[in-house]
Give the backbone structure.
Amino acid sequence: MEQVPLSHILILSSALFFLGIYGFFSRRNMITMLMSIELILNSANINFIAFNKYLFPHQLEGVFFTMFIIVVAAAEVSLSIAIIINLYRRFNTIDIEDTTTMKY
Amino acid sequence: MNSYELSSLLIVALPLLSFAFLILLNKQLKPRVAGIIGTLTLATTAILTFYVASGYFFGFGMENGAYVHHIALQFQWLKFSDNLSIDLGIVLDPISVALLIVITVVSTMVHLYSLNYMHGEEYFARYYAYLSLFTFSMLGLVMAVNIFQMYIFWELVGVSSFLLIGFYFTKPSAIAAAKKAFIVTRFADLGFLIGILILSHGAKTLDFFVMIQRLTQAGSPYLAHFTATSFLGLSTLSWALLLVFAGGAGKSAMFPLHIWLPDAMEGPTPVSALIHAATMVVAGVYLVARLFPIFAISAPDALLIIAYIGAFTALFAAVIACTQTDIKRVLAYSTISQIAYMMFALGVSGWGEGQTEGFTASIFHLFTHAFFKALLFLGAGAIIHAINSNEMKDMGGLRKALPITHITFLVACLSISGIPPFSGFFSKEAILSAASHSNMLVYYVGLFTSGLTAFYMFRLYFRIFWYKPVQDHHNHEKHTWAMNSALLVLVLGAAFAGLIPFGSFVSATGSPIILPFNPSFSVVPVSFGLIGIFLAYYFFSKESDRADKTVAYFGGFYRAAYHKFYIDEIYLFVTKKVIFNLIGRPAAWFDRTVVNGILINGTAVVTEAGSEAIKPMQSGKVQSYAMFFLGGVLLLVALLFIQFM
């Protein structure tokens, strides 16, 4: 059975990465920005898995790293949501443009 | 550590403890309790001093027929290099032990006397604390093993004298006098410090005894190196010693650094007694005596300069003393004159066989002078206490009102005038005899000065106790037991201290010498003294116009002397007009425009503008931060790309 070549997977992960970047910069809704960040992290995960499988099939470092990233991302999301809820209580909005009081 | 060493440590430590105790509890203690604590501490110190002195002079001090120095305590305090360190310690040798006796006895008497004199002062406990500090500093100074240790205590003496002279700190003149004393002596100490640095650079040590050994032995490489270079006809060593002497001249009020001493009487009178008799002013003499072997063997030219400065100051101050009308000021100038006697006695002394009597005579005079000068000042204090005035015109005919003061004052006057058999006679004879053997010019100046001394002291005596008919039969001395007893103890010293065979205890080399006592030599100085007394009697025994007529005859010279030869005015002119305008103003301008304007304000302006310019970057917009972050990452990627392509 013919394997999917590595380049295909890398193109997929790059596409996912830049979609995430684009979303992060273009959206004003904090929840959407958070989802974009998840996309970026997942594109990195795909890279880890792909390189692990294609270059070092007998080792598991890439898989473990992916696990770590998923755990860290979950923790990060819970923190971010907490911050967003607090911001909402204070400003009554989750628009990133309206919460700019932390400056000089 | 044997009992003598322990006692010598206690001698310095007790006054320090007393100071700490009194200054910390000065609000809690009752004034009388504070005074008694201070006095008892000092009395204990004096007793310990006598114990140590008897042990030293009649016991462990003598080795092979000569007194040697004994290091009672020494430890390293600051180490700069392998062979240069600052040590702290205690040295016992003939001059330091003699000075210890003088300091502790006079200081104890001053403490005792102040119980009455300062009674009712608001800061009584603080006064006693300062007295203890002053005594501690002076004791540390004379016991120093190391020239730098001496310098530390030297400055402590300066600070404590500042505190005591300015004790009446609500009086502007007292503040001015305290500042003047501090600044003038501090200025002189600059010379001392430079001298120490040069000496220690040359001798590679700060220890007195190592330094003396290295700089006096013939053929010593240190000495050869030191005397190899010269400047203006004097070797580097002579210059270093003269700079050290400049510090001594500041403390000992030698011309032209004497201007602080007459003003220092703004402090309480017992303090003047302490400064003038036992502490502070004798520090300079002690310093020269401490380094005497170096002066005498390796730099006789420096010693000659000291002799001339001393002789000039002695005469100069005696002339001024004849014209002053404030009794404490007369005594202050008399102190300058007498200290100058000690200086020129050191100056005319040499090292060889039979030439060192000047050294012994100088310390001898220091010893006797301490007693009669303390007595004179404390007597003056009693007079001021009784009539509340320093001016001669308010006095006269006080012999019935102050009988004890009268008798003790008379003894002190006879003693300072060199009339036998009082103590001043013996020491002054020794000084004049030493001068006559080495330098006739100095001898004649000294002789004339001794006549002047007798004149101005008896002028003081007659103006205070005679001059006017007795009006006040009320005895002022009934309630001043402490003052009376201090006077009575000191009068014993003033009368009999001269009978001590001083030469067998203190000499330059350590081996006892016999001070020449030659009645045929004494005739001339004693008759000078008697002529002075007779002149004073002629002018001032009764109210008359004889003095005024003579003053009119002297005219301009009298006015110049009355105004202290305008030395203060010259100082004011030099500092205010010359130094302020030529150095002070340009320096102030430089400070204001360059240092403050350009350097300090300029930095502030640049920083502020820079921060204003970059402040908007902190916009609070998370996405713009992320944009910068992304830009940075892309830049790094591009750089890495270029690097590896």
User: Anything to note?
Assistant: The longest helix of chain A spans residues 61-91. DSSP finds three helices and no strands in chain A. Chain A touches chain B through eleven residues (CB under 8 Å).
